[in-house]
Amino acid sequence: MTYTDYTTGEPVADTKAPSGPVNERWDKRRFEAKLVNPANRRKHTVIVVGTGLAGGSAGATLAEQGYHVVQFCYQDSPRRAHSIAAQGGINAAKNYRNDGDSIHRLFYDTVKGGDFRARESNVHRLAQISVEIIDQCVAQGVPFAREYGGLLDTRSFGGVQVSRTFYARGQTGQQLLLGAYQALSRQIAAGNIEMHPRTEMLDLIVIDGRARGIVARDLITGKIDTYFADAVVLASGGYGNVFYLSTNAMNSNATAIWRAHRRGAWFANPCFTQIHPTCIPRTGDHQSKLTLMSESLRNDGRIWVPKAQGDTRPANRIPEDERDYYLERIYPSFGNLVPRDIASRAAKNVCDEGRGVGPGGQGVYLDFADAIKRMGRKAVEAKYGNLFDMYQRITDEDPYEVPMRIYPAVHYTMGGLWVDYDLQTTIPGLFAIGEANFSDHGANRLGASALMQGLADGYFVLPATINDYLARHPHQGEVTDEHPVVQEALAETQDRLNLLLSVDGDRTPDSFHREVGELMWEFCGMARTDSGLRKALERIPQIREEFWRRIKVPGTGEEFNQSLEKANRVVDYLELAELMCLDALHRDESCGGHFREESQTPDGEAARKDDAFAYAAAWEFTGTGAAPTLHKEDLVFEYVHPTQRSYA
Amino acid sequence: MKLTLRVWRQQNADADGAMSTYEVDGVSPDMSFLEMLDTLNEELILKGEDPVAFDHDCREGICGACSLVINGDAHGPERTTTCQLHMRSFQDGDTIDIEPWRASAFPVIKDLVVDRSAFDRIIQAGGYITAPTGSAPEAHATPVPKPDADLAFEHAECIGCGACVAACPNGAAMLFTSAKVNHLNVLPQGAPERETRVLDMVAQMDEEGFGGCTLTGECATACPKGIPLVSITSMNKEWLRATRKVAKR
Fold it and tell me: Where is the active site (chain A) (predicted)?
């Protein structure tokens, strides 16, 4: 039986989501959830893996509630988690602009933006909580942009027609993360959080069907240790680095969620990846990562390419009537602010037509000449100054004088561990929050919604729902290293690292990462086909086989060894990539960021097949390279009725 | 481009370190400095040698992980983070010295990687506003004058990389500490803890073994985020004010 011969198992249902009117469900769930007596909370230990917006806010809040939190991050400080790099902003349905925004509209925009592949209950809760997040962050001292009257400023983002994005210049992620990090720091000082920086989770410990701890490696000494708890929360981020080149941080990785998947947590919609339209094009083979330019640039910048193929004149020598402002032309009502998936695909299309600009023709212009004329250079500087500086530093071109060149790049993964309304995975006691789960963005995430979801999960959702689990299922007795399951997990981890160190082949971890990444970009990137995906599925096991024959990792496991860290992450990419391709192959429709060339409308837009695919695909692991089992969660739309998305 | 690199190699915290010399060829001016080091490391791995360890993560100039002293300057010749430094800032044939942050409060872990956890402990001492989740008033309940919000933001831009300490002849952490003190102390939300914050953070800073400040200004010159030197003066003022106010209590 080959990998593609997957079987379809029992459907999966979100049993925790209450029924009734969508706007009452969260209240209802919070009331029905059992509480843990405050005096008993310190007897419960919760492990949190990751310190980004989701993990940082969850750790701080759980500790404030009285739980004993043991928290991990691979970075040298919790303040450096990759949420820090988010630039543009955070959505909230405050309606401070009086422009017709509401919780219901944010809910509607998010379900529609996700191309009808997200759960209504979750998304509505997200929209409700959005307003509390802004209050919370302001109280922490997050320096959001303000108007002269002292009130908060907002801006617009792609896929919506209201101005609901709160921001802190181009560093919103950093400022929100520092807010969470500071709250976390307060709890560390109070002794409520035991923080382990430079420590990476390498396996999950599941005893009697419940998550009871993790195996983790101290990245300085190389020591492998076990940590036990009453519940484990994964806030380890997305898996975009499977593509090698992405906007993710270099060390962001999929190991925590993939190891949990191998231990029984189902993985939902792995093929739903977001390709961000406004990134700086690559310059050569040495490229180690791609840099995003905030989508907020599309508010004032105009995207264009030459009308003629192969036009190599410099931008300023191409007259106005020989330029094609293709987004404004194809989507007159949303123009340059169409959702990310649509903007990315349109850029790919014009480049495929031979109208791309810059080296290799892999780029389109993002032009601020009109904005500078309209607003003045000073105003453009105030709004986008740091982004322009960053662009100039990387490309050595002055974007005030010549248009920026941009090209799509892998940015975010909507898929992730399957979770119910309580954010609990299919392993009782294992929760997944933030980008690590699959729940809120469907097949495409709207701009400025990742920060919103990370903080909603961490500050408000998980701290309410985890009580219910801990109250209903108190653990009897301690787990120790002597437990056979723990021994086995430790031995497996140790064996894997030893094997990596002992092969002594002739290829570096990076060379394998690059190879699988390029394969994924070609066949599981912006456009996917049946034949391409099958090619990738044939190739991935070969790369895996070659990896274990030819990998070379210098040094030992008992020291600071970055090559070993990297190689171990690549092991997991080589399995995850296969599942992503299979998911993309099985989903024989286009939706959001998943574009199957076989399924498009006559004018080239993504054509969904709601009759066949209005479900979340949750995959169950059955062994490396073995055909997984598919469990379908039917998606029901009671409020936002699926239509062909139209931004024209 | 062809370059000669002289790199600080140190097996671990307890071992002695030394500069080692490497040649790298085929460097493109469009490479970032860290991509140039990636190239070197790929060669070292294939030769069976230990690659050069260095901290890095976002490679977008915001996470604050990267931390190299290049030709004697923290983050090198341009005013930016190491990851945003490109090889076009160098000439073919150059010899480049690469060292870790040099400060006794930042002990070396391996090669170019240092331990900056002292910064975390300074924040833990008081670099926060006590606002437990759920207790926040409506965001617009307290308007913040734009100049104050902008000033807070200017200080909040600190990425905690430690270049200020590495550049300081005394190994002082005044710019880092003052950036957080000022970020929170100029906001109305930070006012209730204004005194304890500055006193506790400065006390922790001293305890960590950072040097004293003689206002040489090297910190602000090296800061990739442009935290101004006046930040230190403001913190000193805050500290004096707090000392006197607390004494009166």
Answer: 340 (proton acceptor)
| pLDDT score at A477 | 82
> pLDDT grade, residue A296 (50/70/90)?
confident
Rounded to the nearest integer, the mean pLDDT of chain B is 97
- Cβ atoms B142, B46 nearer than 8 A: no
Q: Which domains does chain B have, with CATH numbers?
A: 3-110 (3.10.20.30), 117-248 (1.10.1060.10)
**Residue matched to tokens 């402990």:** B121
Best CA proximity match to A301, nearest among A395, A170, A406: A406
Instruction: Kindly indicate whether the domain formed by A276-410 is annotated with CATH number 3.90.700.10.
Output: yes
Secondary structure E strands in A148-237? 154-155, 165-166, 193-196, 199-207, 210-218, 224-228, 231-234
Number of other residues whose CB lies within 10 A of the CB of residue B216: 14
Which residues does B33 contact at the CB level (< 8 Å), separation at least 6?
Answer: B68, B70, B76, B82, B83, B85, B86, B87
Question: Closest approach of chain A CAs to the CA of B201, in angstroms?
Answer: 12
Tell me, yes or no, if A25 is annotated catalytic: no
Selected residues 210-249 of chain B with any CB under 8 Å from a CB in chain A: none
Question: Which letter does DSSP use for residue A559 in this model?
Answer: S
In chain A, where the domains are located:
276-410, 484-614
Long-range contacts of A532-535 (CB under 8 A, 24+ apart): A533/A581, A533/A582, A533/A584, A533/A585, A534/A4, A534/A585
Sequence letter at residue A87: Q
Helices (H), A245-304: 255-262
* DSSP helix/strand/coil, A574: helix
Phi, psi of A50 (to 5 degrees): 110, 145
Per-residue pLDDT at A548? 98
B224: Cα within 13 Å, side-chain hemisphere: 32
pLDDT digits (tens, 9 = 90+) for A396-416: 999 999 999 999 999 999 999
CA atoms within 13 A on the CB side of A122: 31
CB-based contact B128 A183, cutoff 8 Å: yes
The H-or-E segment that residue A6 falls in is none
Q: Find, among A175, A183, A174, A210, the residue nearest to A71 by Cα.
A: A183
Mean pLDDT lowest for which of A27-36, A328-337, B72-81, B114-123?
A328-337
Alpha helix (H) residue ranges in A67-214: 103-113, 120-140, 172-189
Residue B161 has pLDDT above 80, yes or no: yes
A484-614 CATH fold: Methane Monooxygenase Hydroxylase; Chain G, domain 1 (1.20.58)
Residues of B in contact with A506 (CB under 8 A): 46
Tell me: the pLDDT tens digits for A411-462?
Answer: 999 999 999 999 999 999 999 999 999 989 999 999 899 999 999 999 999 9
For CA atoms B126, B129, B134, B135, the dihedral sign is positive
pTM score: 0.97
Distance CA A12, CA A16 (A): 12
Give the one of A135, A188, A459 whose C-beta lies nearest to B138's C-beta: A135
Mean pLDDT value of segment B2-11: 98
Rounded CA-CA distance A391/A367 in Å is 13
In a 10 Å sphere around its CB, with 0-12 CB exposed, 13-18 middle and 19+ buried, how is residue A316 labelled?
Answer: exposed
Say if B12 is an interface residue toward chain A (CB within 8 Å). yes
Q: What is the largest CA-CA distance in chain B?
A: 67
Cα separation, B61 vs B66, in Å, equals 8
B60 with A292: Cβ contact below 8 A: yes
Tokens linked to A563? 């090559």
Whether residue B120 and residue A61 make contact (CB cut-off 8 A), yes or no, is no
